[in-house]
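Justification of resources, computational component.

The compute hours requested in this renewal are based largely on the per-chain cost of generating structure records like the one below. Each record pairs the submitted sequence with a full structure-token output. That output is archived, and it is also reused by downstream analysis tasks.
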Amino acid sequence: MTLLLILALSLLALWWIAWSIDRRNAWSVAVYRAEHGDPERLEPHPGARQPALRAADVTDVDAAAVADPFVARDGERWYLFVEVVERARRRGAIGLATSADGITWRYERIVLREPFHLSYPYVFFDRGVHYMIPETRRANAVRLYRAEAFPYGWRFERELMRGDYHDPSIVRRDDRWWLFALRGRRELTLHGAERLEGTWTEHPASPLAVDDPSLVRPGGRITVVGDRLLRFAQDDAVDYGRAVRAFEIVALDTSRYEERELPGSPILVASGRGWNADGMHHVDLVDAGDGTLLAYVDGKCIVRCFRPRKGARRVGAVLTTPIRHASRKGTLRASR
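The structure output for this chain reads:
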């Protein structure tokens, strides 16, 4: 009897250890540059630390990851807004880093936090005001925030649309606003409005793509490079956040939409080693003003971690399953 008890406890211990080992994506942010200004030829910036910003650089919360970099400039200062995943809450908030040259970055602090998950802090400037449209799908809405005291103070302005939208990406083109987003997990949608605070209506060609994980999810700022308007997409076909694909938007008006993939796409892929060994899923291209095209990107490496509470919950579920089944059968007999 004692031997059987020891064997049973040993088996439970092995299950607990095995089920406590977890895999998580450790995301970091890096600075790249476009060789000869070509967005299809991105490379790590030789003057930047790679990665430029890590979870370990976050000083005001215990961070598990930093991702989704978007850059804004105000005078001579550079501002980098990122998703910061707080380890304890397992929820994203928006963090800020600053730089004097766009190459070397110093983390400052969390600048926007909500009771729900925030990510993808798409910052942009319009008529003298800085705005941000982060992903707020947990609030079942696309929400617009306005800077009251840029870059640290943000307030909620209004909802642009209701619904389950991932990674909303906005651009102004030909005196009209356009908003791309992943609806649910299946559809790349396009909405338009004459004014930022106006009524947003879905484009006749929307959804632009359905059930194609290699291109339906936005992967960074919609950007004009030369005479081309570029859209970036996460390639999630094999695994989440594996690569970034690039498309030129060749037709965009109230009745037509057309795009074509660039010959050099995907422009960012997993490196196989280091901080971006297992994937890259975001890019924000910024003209540095001296002829250099900088790219702010993120990458992931899969790390193993030990989560004893998760293992204990799974062991507990296995042990209590027969009891739950027996209780259910007993209830059924009694009801008869």
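Residues 308-335 form the longest helix (28 residues). The chain has a mean pLDDT of 90.
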